[in-house]
Amino acid sequence: MMKLTIGTRQSPLAMTQARLVAGLLRAAHPGLEIELLPITTKGDRILDVPLAQVGGKGLFVKEIEEALLQKRADLAVHSMKDVPAELPQGLTIAAVPAREDCRDVLVCRRAAGLGDLPDGARVGTGSLRRAAQLLHLRPDLNVVGLRGNLETRLKKLTEQDLDAVVLAAAGMSRQGLAERITEFLDPAEFLPAVGQGALGIETREDDDRTNEVVRVLDDPSTRVALTAERAFLKRLEGGCQVPLACLARLDDGRMIVDGLIAGLEGTPYLRDQKTGPTGQAAALGAALAEELLSRGGAEILRAVYGQGE
């Protein structure tokens, strides 16, 4: 009987996601034995500092990737929005299951949605991307820094007397909290993070046995969309420190890629779109990043990231 060990963050949502993948693998391969290896990452340990100030990339994946390379785990299940554009040598994203809802959502205490929040409303988020887009749409808002797992951030809605918090639809759904959602934020005006809503199964490139087992979960449409989004991310060398967003989608056989770079206060605000064949996914994502850089994105990166293009 084959046995596989899944490395995962030990947050409730991450464990739920790892169990979801384990269930899919067991269904596809009857008799497969799977155990979970919960791992605490740097991003999980440092909760009293905004992510943008922690520094470095891979804050929620590095220790898990080390377990893979040390062969303590056979595969890892990540939220793709946490995975840097470049992987450590010897590792690969062997499969990406079909994407969940990619949208951001608002959970409000009293208001009916973003447009209904009172002037100066206190809205919680730990994401510079979300903060920049909130302030672009509603410059009057008071954006409050928020860290912790999903349940912790929901508790802080009342504990910190916030009017609303911004979270990911996928996480709310996977944790059975969809009924708490007040409003889904339309990507037409509120772009999600690169990879948001998608899971990635990371393995060792040379582990043919594991790669063959997990390949059955790969969804071609999700993979090609992520290829475009991650090419955008790679060109911008982005991470938690930069307010950038990208969403790729398929429409009648063609790919549409939307991208954004914004200043911390919602201005400057640069957004554009590229359309082309799915076979050019990576080129479209990179070209979109170049377009935004040429229109002033490089200056935003220097101001926000302390780093040129």
Q: Find the count of extended strands (DSSP E, 2+ residues).
A: 13
Dominant shape: globular
What proportion of the residues form beta strands (DSSP E)?
15-25%
Report the CATH superfamily of the largest domain: Periplasmic binding protein-like II
Element order: H for helix, E for strand: EHEHHHEEEEHEHEHEEHHEEEH
Which fold name fills CATH's third level, the topology of the largest domain? Answer: D-Maltodextrin-Binding Protein, domain 2
Separation of the first and last Cα atoms: 50 Å
Mean of pLDDT: 92
By secondary-structure content and strand pairing, the structural class works out as alpha/beta
Give the domain tally. Answer: 3
In which range does the helix fraction lie? 25-40%
Q: Report the major sheet.
A: 5 strands, mixed
Q: Could you name the CATH class of the largest domain?
A: Alpha Beta
Could you say what the CATH architecture of the largest domain is? 3-Layer(aba) Sandwich
Q: Spatial order of the strands in the main sheet?
A: 2-1-3-10-4
